[in-house]
Design goal:
The protein contains nine helices and twelve strands. It is α+β, with helices and mostly antiparallel strands. A hairpin with a 3-residue loop joins strand 10 and strand 11. The two termini are 32 Å apart. Its main location: cytoplasm.
Length: 303
Amino acid sequence: MFFRNLTLFRFSPSVADDLQRLEEALGEHRLRPCGPLEMGTRGFVPPVGRGDEAAMTHAVKSCTLLTVGAEEKLLPSAVVNDELQRKVQKIAEEEGRKVGGRERKRLKEDLLTELLPRAFVRSSRMSAYVDRKHGWLVLDTSSRKSAENALTQVREALGSFPAVPLAPEEGPRVLMTDWLANGNLPGGLALGDECELRDPATATGAIARCRRQDLDAEEVKEHLRNGKQVFQLGLVFDERMSFVLGEDLVVRKLKFLDVVLDELGDSQVDAAAEMDARFALLTLELERLLSKLEEWFGLPRPE
């Protein structure tokens, strides 16, 4: 269950104390199936196992894993609009009149009521964990909207959860541009083989994307000399993990290298034991990475 992306929030030590009741709070906000006339539902599901008896969290030391679930009805607007158009055309042919805006709206609402119970349901899951000791909320997504939706679910379950977005004291774009242009990378950090460079002067400025590219190549340096800055940069940390870091400090394409995976050893005897081993390894590795992000970019923990 290794995360592939990291969207990060921070919270204070006083907030961390309140997270002791996370298991109970999430249990009161379990994901329930979509009702016949509902477009979707959100809630929490057990990270390990299934059923009402399964725990809603999985803890290793100060880190607690949780899973946000959702069910969403698939009812494409094109299907609704086509059916609505057929109804409007039928009224025009049979009654010899045009359908006004108010009646069209009512017909569409009736159609939704008719079609929703027959719509397919799509399920989704997002893993996340809280690190109470260091004040991190880590979500396995690169989508800001999805992360905010998950954070809202946690807030609703707890009643209050004042986790805040990262507020770097060092500008990520400027710092990563210096890393790439001048090779001034912090110890333990090496360039990967991917970057996105943009001209920051205008919103529609030129964009250069490099993949499977030697980032020390002259053509990359030429883009930087022409005024482009780094918006995403592929990096390798301590030869243990690779990722692409964005100027929004979202970690994308996170991949643990073989030296880390080899530490898992043989398969565990059951799903719970394997989850425990993987989550312990994940949080241990990310604790080191997050502490370095905090150091490099100046990411204060709220008081």
